[in-house]
Amino acid sequence: MSKPKKWTKPEIKKQLEERGMTLTGLAEMNGLNPNTFRAVWSRTVRPAERALADFLGTKVEELFPDRYPIRKSRILDSAKYPSLESQNSNAAVNKLVAA
What we know:
Largest sheet: none
CATH class of the domain at 9-63: Mainly Alpha
Number of helices: 6
CATH architecture of the domain at 9-63: Orthogonal Bundle
Structural class: mainly alpha
Helix content: 40-55%
CATH topology of the domain at 9-63: 434 Repressor (Amino-terminal Domain)
Distance between the termini: 64 Å
Strand content: under 5%
């Protein structure tokens, strides 16, 4: 499996220009404030990120990989993290001890 393309700010802007679009135009097309799209470079703005990804035909996770890390399932070591018993499993034993 090949690694996804790493997008940079200049590459994203270049792709927009090649397709005849600007950040302001994309904002107007999606009913968002143009300042929202200008802020996308410095902070997470999900609606703007989604609109950019949709326009460029890619996933948001590929466009901004540092903001959308790939989640991996974790397998915990059973020796280090033993399974917890239910509180109800010892309820009968506790009643006998208390009596």
